[in-house]
Amino acid sequence: MGADAKQDSPTHDVVGALNCVRERIEALSSTQNGRRVDLVAVSKTKPPELLQAAYDAGQRHFGENYVQELVQKAPLLPPDVKWHFVGSLQSNKAKILVSVPNLFVVESVDRKKTATALHKAVAKTDRNEKLKVMVQVNTSGEESKSGCQPGQTAELAEFVVKECEHLELVGLMTIGAFDTSDEPEAFKILNKERDAVATRLNRSIKELQLSMGMSGDFEAAIRMGSDSVRVGSTIFGAREYGNKVIQG
Q: Does domain 3-246 sit in CATH 2.40.160.40?
């Protein structure tokens, strides 16, 4: 086989894997009273060519973990891509993040300082709409993972709603510890935190989306009520850091 064939193969792998994930999501959605579940293709460290292949196959929601990477990729993809920022956000990076015109949602608001930085940054742009945000909850208690602690979620959510007029709270997100059980504990916790937020804000739980589930557990997440799942390595392949292969 020539060099061209080798270059083409990753594209075909992405499209095939993407369609397989979609089929699995649709099969589960049909058992959830037709509830819509959005697929966010998490493309961190992956080249724009693979994202374009997914886009050409109909994918529109993409997720990135690093501000600089999102800022660099966004102009290289079509403007109707809906970018989800799903990584830990330093307050001093808020301004450059919101400069991306098609930034769809920031899923990783984990403290008041982050919310305030985003609020102030959006205020200085010409955005016509509020920036959608989610409160990230650390459901595993791991220091390596970002997120507010369970029990503090409602307070942070209320702060976003009452003190950050340029932000729109749309739900909660978690990464959680990997759990192969049918009902992972992380997802139970996030559902309980949503109940607490709904009570505090006097909202219906239907108004608050859940973003939970990744490559290894997105099907369990859907069964437990997730409105969107973030799938990376299953679509784009494992990420390599030094001698480690990272799945997610």
A: no
